Structure formats: structure tokens, C-alpha cells
Amino acid sequence: MPRAVNGTRRTERRKKILKQAKGYWGRRSTNFRAAKDAVAKAGIYSYRDRKVKKREFRRLWITRISAGCKLNGINYSQFMNGLLKADIELNRKALSNMAIEDPKAFTTLVEQSKTALGV
């Protein structure tokens, strides 16, 4: 009786991993053993960085808002506190976009924030 070596399933599994490793540098794209490790590590990085991406964008938005605030003579924390007291609910992404694309509207928001603070 011939020995079963699980040929087609093993080939399919390996082809799947090598397809995922396409474009990797050197042996990692052609050698199954190296590709398997590289694909596993890439999965770990992509899972982790989906969380990190959210943090990095929030930092970017805050930096942009802060730069817009400094041009109008107020700091970021006072500006956000003034918006809270003025009952203006805009998220940081929208505020950041406004600071870049529509500085006049952002300046009016800063003025409203200042009046709410009594500055």
C-alpha cells in the first residue's frame, strides 16, 4: 500500500503562505520556512498597528489644532476647555481640518471659546 504524504493539502497550505509573502525581501518571499515566520510576524505588526494608527492620528489632529490656536493667541487646552463651556461639540478631526482648510471659521471658533472662558 502506498504511503500517504498529504500532498495536495500541504501544497495548498504552502502556496497560501507564499502568496501572502509575495513582495517580501530575499528568501522570505520564496522559502516556505522563512515566509511562514515573516507572515506570522507581519500579522502581529498589522494587528498592533491598527490600534497605534488611531493614537497617531489623534496626536496629529491635536498638533494641528494647537498650531491653529497659537496663531490666534490661545493654547490648545484653554481652547478645548472654552469649546466645552460654549457647548460646541466638534471632534478633533473636524477641528484639525477646519484649522487647515478654513482658518477664518477656526478663528471664529477661537473667539467663541475665548468669550466662553471670559478671556
H/E series = HHHHH
**Structural class of the helix and strand makeup?**
mainly alpha
For the termini, the CA-CA separation is 91 Å
- Sheet of most strands: none
Shape descriptor: rod-shaped
In helices, the fraction of residues equals over 70%
H/I helix tally: 5
CATH class identity: Mainly Alpha
Q: Report the mean per-residue pLDDT as an integer.
A: 94
Q: In the residues, how many domains can be counted?
A: 1
Could you please say which CATH topology applies here?
A: c-terminal domain of poly(a) binding protein
**Low-confidence spans:** none
The second-level CATH architecture is Orthogonal Bundle
Q: Can you characterise this structure?
A:
- With 119 residues, the protein is mostly helical.
- The protein has one domain: Orthogonal Bundle (c-terminal domain of poly(a) binding protein), CATH 1.10.1900.
- Helices cover 75% and strands 0% of the residues.
- It is built from five helices and no strands.
- It is rod-shaped.
- The termini are far apart.
- 14% of the residues are buried.
Keywords:
119 residues; mainly alpha; c-terminal domain of poly(a) binding protein; 75% helix; rod-shaped
Sum this structure up briefly.
With about 120 residues, the chain is an all-alpha fold.
What is the strand and helix layout of this fold?
Elements: H1 7-20, H2 32-71, H3 76-85, H4 92-101, H5 103-117
